[in-house]
Amino acid sequence: MNQITVYTYREFDEGRYFEQFEKEHDVRIVKCYGNPDGENLELARGSTCVNIITTKITEEIIRKFADMGVRYIATRTIGYDHIDMKAAAAYGITVANAPYGPEGVADYTVMLMLMALRNMKRIMQRTELQDYTLNGLMGKELHDLTVGVVGTGRIGTRVVQNLSGFGCRILAYDLHENAEVRRYAEYTDADTLLHNADLVTFHTPLTDDNYHLINKETLGRMKDGVILVNTARGPLIETEALISGLESGKIGAAAIDVVEHEAGLYYNDLKSTVLTNRELTVLRGFPNVTVSHHMAFYTQNAIRTMVLDSMEGCLQFMQTGTSRWSVGK
User: Fold this and answer.
1) Most exposed residue of 79, 112, 132, 309, measured as fewest CB within 10 angstroms of its CB?
2) Catalytic residue among 71, 158, 203, 233
3) Annotated catalytic, 262?
4) Which pLDDT tens digit goes with each residue over 80-96?
5) How far is CA 83 from the centre of its chain?
């Protein structure tokens, strides 16, 4: 019987789909409730494929997986920048992702935009204290703004489509333009977008070229009071520049679902723990910053797709040596 080791296994939401796949395809799933690290790597012995989420997969982990016979790593996420791709290629391991539908993240993105524009964090805080005053809560209307969309892949395109109903001006930037976006938005270069947008939202994979795309220099070329929304990858925005911009008022508001150095924090219960990410603690303290814990993807459809497609890729690889979701080797 084929065996697949699944790390960071979550019973409460993913479990039923893993069980469904196990029964329908006659495979054995080795469950590990922790992240792949230390002694639990031994659970991968006997498995050609391992299944992970957004935990750091270093060269050392990859080497140990390879020594135990692992040849395929499936991440049940769209992004795979948490995996050392060079090391995977060097050890002959294929990497695959799970590109769930774009609707959930796109919907969540627009929600964060509206929350930032309408000062929703402050409204909810006051309501909890039965403070029903209005001073300081006046918002902005989306149709009055120019929105810049950085990255027009599946998610960015859906965001543009969603925004089209609000009547706002939309600027878009991507290395690869597409016709659907052109129906609603004006493609431009990155500098023009950043210079003209009242609100910027990010929907691009993290690469060496766009690491810290928003930094002190680029922020200086943006509009005063600009609003930043990030549901893509934390390191697209340099956190120190973000904090400085909020303190100076250069940034009017931010709504972020991702942040730099989030590994080891998100998806864990840390309510009695002193956070090691000092910058995250600072950001959470701003009244005009909304922070959520990398959960824009988190819908019923997405979880089902992430589990079943990642497992289907494992099965395809074990049967044929290839997978339709492979992104590298």
Assistant:
1) 132
2) 233
3) yes
4) 999 999 999 999 999 99
5) 14
Query: Could you tell me the two tokens for 59?
Result: 């060269």
Q: pLDDT digits over 165-210, tens only? A: 999 999 999 999 999 999 999 999 999 999 999 999 999 999 999 9
Active site residue 24: no
**Res. 328: pLDDT tops 80:** no
Q: How many CB atoms lie within 10 A of CB 125?
A: 12
Known catalytic membership, residue 233 = yes
Asked if 30 and 57 touch (Cβ cutoff 8 Å), the reply is no
Q: What distances in angstroms separate CA 9 from CA 14, 280, 281, one per listed residue?
A: 7, 26, 28
Q: Dump the DSSP string for 157-218.
A: HHHHHHHHTTT-EEEEE-SS--HHHHTT-EE--HHHHHHH-SEEEE-----TTTTTSB-HHH
Calculate ∠ Cα 163-166-171, nearest 5°: 45
For the chain, the average pLDDT equals 97
Whole-angstrom distance, CA of residue 229 vs CA of residue 277 = 20
**What is the C-alpha to C-alpha distance for residues 240 and 242, in angstroms, rounded to an integer?**
5
Place of tokens 């902005």: 140
CA-CA distance, 75 to 310, in Å (whole number)?
A: 7
Q: Please name which of 283, 323, 306 lies closest in space to residue 121, comparing C-alpha atoms.
A: 283
pLDDT digits (tens, 9 = 90+) for 274-300: 989 999 999 999 999 999 999 999 999
| Active-site option among 14, 76, 294, 312 | 294
